[in-house]
Write a structure and sequence with these properties.
Rossmann fold, alpha/beta, 8 helices
Length: 203
C-alpha cells in the first residue's frame, strides 16, 4: 500500500515545532538522532523534515559515531551530553530542549538551559546559544535569546509575551542582564556546534 503524503496543514504544524532549526547556520535537517525521553510531536516533526531519523532511549552504537548532522535531547542527564557528542559529524549541531521544572538534586540534570550551555562549552562546542521558546515548544510564537537583554525588551515591546506571565517577564531585562532569566522561563533550549578541524575546540 502506498504511503499517504501528509497534508499541508500537518506539515505546517510540524514545521512550527521545529522553528528552532533556524538557530543553526544550516537549518536543513540531514541525519538526525533523537535520544532519551521524547515528545511525540517533536519526534514526528523530525521524522517529516529530516533526511533520516534515529529515535531511541539510549545513544546509538559506536558504529554511528561522527555520522549525524544533528543530535536532539530533551531534559537530558548531565552524563548524556558527552555520550551524545561523538555522534556528531564535525560541524554538526547538538540541540537540548529544557522543559521546566527540573530538579537538579534528584535528577542529576543542569538547573537551566544556561547550565546546559556551560556544559556544551566545556565539551568544546562553539556557537553556543541559549533561547526562550514562548509560550511553549509546541505552539511557539517567539524564540528570544536569553542572554540578550535588548532582544528580551524587544519581544516584550512587540507584545509577543502576554498574559499572566508578563507580570513575571517585567523583570526579564534585568534577569537577562544578570544571566538569570534561563532559570525561570518554562521552555528554553541550548544549542551548540561541534567544531571542525582548525577551529578552537576541534578534537
Amino acid at each position: 500500500m502506498q504511503a499517504v503524503a501528509p497534508s499541508y496543514d500537518v506539515l505546517l504544524q510540524a514545521s512550527r515545532r521545529l522553528d528552532w532549526r533556524f538557530l543553526m547556520t544550516e537549518p536543513e535537517l540531514g541525519r538526525v538522532a533523537c535520544i532519551g525521553v521524547h515528545d511525540p510531536e517533536l519526534v514526528e516533526s523530525l521524522r517529516l523534515f529530516s533526511a533520516m531519523l534515529t529515535a531511541s532511549e539510549a545513544a546509538p552504537t559506536a558504529a554511528e559515531e561522527s555520522s549525524y548532522d544533528l543530535v536532539v535531547l530533551r531534559n537530558p542527564a548531565a552524563e548524556d551530553l558527552p555520550a551524545a557528542l561523538p555522534l556528531l559529524r564535525p560541524g554538526g549541531w547538538l540541540y537540548v530542549e529544557v522543559q521546566r521544572p527540573l530538579n537538579r538534586r534528584r535528577s542529576g540534570r543542569p538547573r537551566s538551559a544556561s547550565g546546559y550551555a556551560r556544559a556544551l562549552r566545556r565539551l568544546g562546542l562553539v556557537e553556543v546559544g541559549v533561547n526562550m521558546h514562548w509560550p511553549d515548544f509546541g505552539s511557539c510564537r517567539a524564540i528570544v535569546p536569553l542572554d540578550d537583554a535588548v532582544a528580551v525588551r524587544h519581544a516584550l515591546a512587540r507584545g509577543q509575551i502576554r498574559g499572566r506571565a508578563r507580570l513575571v517577564m517585567r523583570l526579564a531585562p534585568v534577569l537577562a542582564a544578570t544571566r538569570l532569566l534561563a532559570t525561570v522561563v518554562p521552555c528554553s533550549s541550548a544549542v551548540g556546534r561541534r567544531a571542525v578541524a582548525g577551529e578552537e575546540g576541534a578534537p
